[in-house]
TrEMBL record:
The keyword ATP-binding applies. It comes from Echinicola vietnamensis (strain DSM 17526 / LMG 23754 / KMM 6221). The lineage of its organism: Bacteria, Pseudomonadati, Bacteroidota, Cytophagia, Cytophagales. This is ABC-type uncharacterized transport system, ATPase component. Pfam families: ABC_tran (PF00005), DrrA1-3_C (PF13732). GO terms for molecular function: ATP binding; ATP hydrolysis activity.
Length: 299
């Protein structure tokens, strides 16, 4: 089932289009990447889903129902601009947010204690936010976002501001929630950071969706049929169809396009040139696919 469906959404800020005729379907479960460069319209879309702002026209449905204030409790939202009360203690603040999302006092305290323990930050409970580093405060904000077990978790640039170790911690928590059935929607302009994380993606450029679908399918459709080959030894006579040859540390590497036949045929051909060290298809990155799509749209 689809957890979120967006039909013909438009939003302008004066002359500036932020969203133009955007249709989107977010399937239940999995990680959905909302990708696009700065200013593409991602935050605008997320703010509309969170009912912080309204679209000019178009519709948003959550679990088949037109989006309404009652759906706020179904959503956990980690905004790019983090919003915590600087003077309040971590523990009190998390309990406050949990109560706001409808948990009773007992459940709120139990949940907060559980998350502080899980992320190994019980010692921060009595600290004020203003005494935490940016990364520490972001961990607290992450807990505030997931404390009410939302069905859909929306994360805007979730890894910015974290060091690599803490980014990994948040990533693993996110994947654990996904395993439990939470739908995760994450927005980023750093496409390389989510290449291996997303099950579905939508790419937005200059307010318009340029591509969406299951990532595996998109990658499959974008296959280049170019293979990267490494052969043991140097001074190997390569046929003209081998591109970008390079010799390094006694190994010759090059790229070759599969024009007809199968990868097996190509491998056999390459084996005739020398001792094969490696042979792999050059899979385009999300960023390369995005650039390709933007070019196609421009034409
Ligand atoms: N409050 C606002 N007033 C005027 N223009 C706005 C406002 N918010 C966004 N915009 C414009 O709308 C467009 C989309 O902005 P949006 O913040 O949604 O992009 P984004 O994809 O989230 O970018 P980023 O990756 O930089 O966060 C941009 O051209 C932006 O300048």
């Amino acid at each position: 089932m689809d957890i979120l469906k967006i039909d013909g959404l438009n939003k302008r800020y004066g002359e500036q289009a932020a969203l133009t005729d955007v249709d989107l379907v977010v399937p239940k479960g999995g990680v959905f990447g909302l990708l696009g460069p700065n200013g593409a319209g991602k935050t605008t879309l997320i703010r509309i889903i969170n009912q912080i702002i309204d679209g000019d026209s178009g519709s948003v449905f959550l679990k088949g129902e037109p989006l309404s204030p009652k759906h706020i409790k179904n959503i956990g939202y980690l905004p790019e601009e983090r919003g915590l009360y600087k003077r309040m203690k971590v523990g009190d603040q998390l309990i406050y947010f949990a109560r706001l999302k409808g948990l009773n006092g007992h459940d709120a305290r139990t949940k907060v204690a559980g998350w502080l323990k899980k992320l190994d930050i019980q010692a921060w409970s009595e600290k004020k936010i203003e005494d935490l580093s940016k990364g520490m405060a972001q961990k607290v904000q992450f807990i505030a976002t997931v404390i009410h077990d939302p069905e859909i978790l929306i994360l805007d640039e979730p890894f910015s501001g974290f060091d690599p170790v803490n980014a990994e911690v948040i990533k693993n928590e996110m994947l654990e929630l996904k395993e439990k059935g939470t739908t995760v929607m994450l927005s980023t302009h750093r496409m390389e950071s989510v290449d291996l994380l997303c099950d579905h993606i939508a790419m937005i450029n200059k307010s318009r969706k340029v591509l969406d679908g299951p990532l595996a399918q998109i990658k499959d459709q974008s296959r280049s049929n170019i293979y990267k080959v490494k052969l043991q030894g140097t001074d190997i006579a390569l046929p003209a169809k081998c591109h970008h040859p390079k010799e390094e540390y006694g190994v010759t590497s090059f790229e070759v396009t599969l024009e007809n036949g199968t990868p097996n045929d190509l491998l056999r051909e390459v084996m005739g040139l020398g001792e094969v060290v490696s042979f792999e298809e050059r899979i385009p990155t999300i960023e390369e696919i995005f650039i390709q799509k933007v070019k196609e749209h421009a034409q």
